[in-house]
Amino acid sequence: MYIVTAEDMYEIDRFAIDQGGIDGTILMENAGQAIAKEMMIAEEKSCHMAILVGSGNNGGDGFVIARYLKNEGYPVKVLQLVPNEKIKGDAAYHKQLLIHQKVPIQEVLTTDKLLECLVNVDIVIDAILGIGVTGEIREPLRGMISIINEQNARIYSVDIPSGLPANENHTIDIAIKADRTYIVEAPKQSLFLENTAPYYGEWKVIPIGIPIEAYGMIPKVRSWNLKDVKVSFPKRATFSHKGSHGKGLVIGGQELMPGSVALSSRAALKAGAGLVTVATMERNIPVIANYCMEAMYQNLSNFGHIDLAGFDGVAIGMGMGRNRTAKTFVEDVLAQEDVPVIIDADGLYHLKELLGMLQERRSPTILTPHYGEMAMLTNQEIETIKKAPFTMAKEFAQEHQVYLILKGKYTIITAPDGTQMVNATGNAGLAKGGTGDVLSGILLAFIMQHESVLEAMNNACFIHGMSADLRIESGQNTVIDLLASDVIDGLTNVFRTMS
Ligand SMILES: NC(=O)C1=CN([C@@H]2O[C@H](COP(=O)(O)OP(=O)(O)OC[C@H]3O[C@@H](n4cnc5c(N)ncnc54)[C@H](O)[C@@H]3O)[C@@H](O)[C@H]2O)[C@@H](O)CC1
Ligand SMILES: Nc1ncnc2c1ncn2[C@@H]1O[C@H](COP(=O)(O)OP(=O)(O)O)[C@@H](O)[C@H]1O
Ligand SMILES: [K+]
């Protein structure tokens, strides 16, 4: 599933029409028909539906939906919120089909009239504005959107809640607050942003018959799914030995934070790493070993140099602390260019002063900031990152030539060439200390076992979230009591589904 901007979507449509020879009216028919069918599954025939249409192609989808619902015997009324002369092109074609079918279309041009029309309506189908919205929402639509949001009726939006921008880095003016959105063909960026996602309500993507080649025209942003994981997940060879599965080093865990590296190292082993060594403070070793007795230990009490020779991957920074000596380790590790390095948590704090070293590295560097850490690394406000996470992540990864995992409800994974993936697994149970440490451990195991770093990152994020999801779905945990250690234990159930 590709994730698009409004401009990408228009380009894809154009390709389908110009190169694929599919008429725009057919795409509109496909969209409207498929959405109407979804509505028929979701709603009883006794429901009173009002289909609200605007001037563009989004309104055109609305005319098609009305035709199919009416045909099936649903009591629908079509409210056209713009004057007749504004309905043009493909939308006008589908309006005409509706007229042929003797479906009345009411012109509703004032908020008062709209209020009258919405009395006794159970369901509003919002086909007012799509991805073509620009600037501030103008009257009378502005007032109308406000009124619609105040109704008790359930609201189903077509493609995007009307008024909401499709792209990141736009200010929300006023928009429909949908209960459910039927997204036409491909999710738009705003579906994945904290401030805009809630407007969509539940959502479903409706394919409309665009040829797959059309996606070759746009920058690749895709969501990673279980099928992708199954294809790319490495098989464990029957004659393998512990050396075949990677020798990983976990560095971190200052005196008051032994749990962090304990979680990372145990997660790495549970995720299949062959051998894991933990470099941490001497006093912490017995505590950590109690939780992860399969790991080996190195004493970090004397800050200085750690020789990475012989290791296939390193994860550094979890619970490492922010004192200056800890920074020397990050610097030391980055300078040893031949080993892939994952930098997390306090390691990112120290990295802030070492960003210049990143471009020089010959092996992959993987950074795993959450939004707060990303703001720190880029000298931006958290709100700025939240508003444009795709762009911020891409610019950073390309500038510093790093792999970047921007962690959140939707995690954005970016390669140094700007390729982006979105991971949607995981739930609010993960919003708790230690879950990021677990992700670092899984990542360490996977980068040592996958040929492609990007696939390793995608699979690590997917599986980390899936483990949390399965714990909740199976009833072993709730989103309240889920612990980072439960996510590690849950890996068994995830790997069971991989074969
Ligand atoms: N071939 C295609 O392009 C297809 C498009 N589809 C639908 O078409 C939609 C995009 O169509 P359009 O490009 O016509 O865009 P819209 O349907 O969003 O309509 C844009 C129109 O809305 C009005 N408008 C824009 N900003 C406004 C504002 N701030 N205040 C008040 N009015 C404003 C203007 O009259 C503008 O021309 C998609 O969201 C999707 O629903 C689907 O039918 C599938 C095929
Ligand atoms: N609401 C949420 N829904 C889904 N995943 C979440 C949510 N909150 C956090 N996560 C995931 O949990 C992890 C938290 O990482 P992080 O903030 O670094 O935790 P810590 O540093 O405490 O270990 C990330 O993988 C993030 O994507
Ligand atoms: K809409």
Overview in brief:
By secondary structure, the chain is of the alpha/beta class. It has 19 helices and 17 strands. The mean pLDDT is 95.
Explained architecture:
With 499 residues, this protein is α/β, with parallel strands linked by helices. The chain is 39% helix and 15% strand. The protein is built from 19 helices and 17 strands. The strands form 2 sheets. The protein has a 10-stranded mixed sheet with strand order 8-17-16-15-14-13-12-9-10-11, sandwiched between helices. Adenosine-5'-diphosphate is lined by residues 345, 370, 407-409, 411, 426-428, 430-431, 433-437, 439, 464.
Describe the global form. Answer: elongated
CATH superfamily of the largest domain, please? Ribokinase
Largest sheet features: 10 strands, mixed
Specify the CATH class of the largest domain: Alpha Beta
Helix content: 25-40%
Q: State the distance separating the first and last CA atoms.
A: 23 Å
Report the total helices: 19
Compute the gyration radius: what is it? 26 Å
Strands, count? 17
Strand order of the largest sheet: 8-17-16-15-14-13-12-9-10-11
* Binned strand content: 5-15%
Q: Which structural class do you get from the secondary structure elements?
A: alpha/beta
Give the low-pLDDT segments: none
Helix/strand layout:
Layout: H1 6-18, H2 24-42, E1 49-53, H3 57-71, E2 76-80, H4 89-100, E3 105-107, H5 111-117, E4 123-127, H6 141-150, E5 154-158, E6 180-184, H7 197-200, E7 202-206, E8 221-223, H8 226-232, E9 247-251, H9 258-270, E10 275-280, H10 285-291, E11 296-299, E12 313-316, H11 324-335, E13 341-343, H12 346-351, E14 365-367, H13 371-378, H14 382-387, H15 389-400, E15 403-406, E16 411-414, E17 420-423, H16 435-447, H17 453-473, H18 484-489, H19 491-496
Parallel strand pairs: 1-2, 1-4, 2-3, 4-5, 5-6, 6-7, 8-17, 9-10, 9-12, 10-11, 12-13, 13-14, 14-15
Antiparallel strand pairs: 15-16, 16-17
Helix pairs in contact: 2-3, 2-4, 3-4, 8-17, 9-10, 9-16, 16-17
Bound molecules: ligand NAX, adenosine-5'-diphosphate and potassium ion.
